[in-house]
Amino acid sequence: MASLGLIVLTLPLFALAALLALPARRLRAVPPGVSLLLFTAILGTGLLALLALGDAVQSLVLYPARLQERYLGAVQAGPLRLRGYSEFGFQDPGREWTYALAPETLQRLRARCRPDPRLQDYCRLGGYSDDDGGTDLRLNRGRLEIIDYAM
Question: What is the pLDDT of residue 151?
């Protein structure tokens, strides 16, 4: 979703916060002396923070785990092994995750790799490509790289 989605959803989330603030005032959930406008702003900011947190979990944990499950058969590197994440492109956007691997996981993945004779320490693990984008999983210098062009 990224930042554009947060910008687009700001107004509806603050409208929801305003609708929730009125019953909260009646139920005495708003501390005395705090204006309704300030409470609405705090509530709306909290809703935006929850939305941003959900987007971060989706982008950094859930989606790359699904890609690993689909193309490698199991999750080989979890979120604590993530060493890099980037989004790139304008008309052809993509995302890239880079994971450090445990030595035993690296050996297991190297056994199923298709090496490229032109590139040292590089081999392709799998993926797909079509007119709408593609996904590429590869080992590069002992790290698992997942590049996804299907946004």
Answer: 55
Q: In which element (H, E) is residue 110 found?
A: helix 103-110
Handedness of CA 35, 40, 46, 49 (dihedral sign): negative
CA distances from 31 to 15, 23, 144 (A): 20, 13, 50
Contact indicator for 149, 133 with CB cutoff of 8 Å: yes
Beta-sheet strands, E only, within 5-121:
82-88, 94-100, 114-115
Q: What angle do helix axes 2-26 and 36-57 make, rounded to 10 degrees?
A: 140
Cα distances (angstroms) measured from residue 58 to each of 5, 11, 35, 142: 14, 22, 35, 25
Arithmetic mean of pLDDT, 93-120: 88
Domain ranges of the chain: 1-73, 76-151
The encoded tokens of residue 126 equal 């799998």
Q: Does the pLDDT at position 3 exceed 80?
A: no
Return the pLDDT at 10: 84
pLDDT at 92 over 90: no
